[in-house]
Amino acid sequence: MLMQPFPSDFWRRRPGWLRLLCLCWLLGLLAAGSPAQAQTLTITAALAAPGDGPGYPDGDPGAPVALPDEWAASRHGFAGSLWYRVTFTPPGNLAGGELLALYIDHVCSNYRVLLNGQEIATGGRMTAPLTHNCNHPQLITLPGALLRADASTLDIQVAGHRLAEVGSRQRAGGLSEIVIGPQSELSARYAQRTALQVTAPQAVGATLLLMGGFMFVLGFINRQESHLAYFGALSVGWALLDLRLWLRTLPLSHSTAEFLLVTLLGFITWVAVQFLLRYGGARLQTVDRALPLQAALLPLTLILAGPENLRKVATVWYAVLLVEVMVASGWYLWRERPRRSFWLMGPLLLAMALAGVIELVAQRTGQRPLAAHIAALLAPVLFVIVGLRLVQQQGRARQTVEQDKAILEQRVAEAAAEIENNYRQLSELKVEQVTERERKRIAADLHDDLGAKLLTIVHTSDNERISTLAREALEEMRLSVRGLTGKAVRLGDALGDWRAEVVSRLAQAGIEGEWDAPEDLPQRLSARAYVQTTRILREATSNIIKHSNATLCTMKCTIEHGDLVFVVQDNGDGIAPETEGRLDRGHGLASMKNRAKQLQGQCLVESGPGYGTVIRLTVPLDRATEAAPPA
Question: Which residues, 6 or more positions from 208, have their beta carbon under 8 angstroms from its beta carbon?
Answer without folding.
Answer: 235, 236, 238, 239, 380, 383, 384, 387
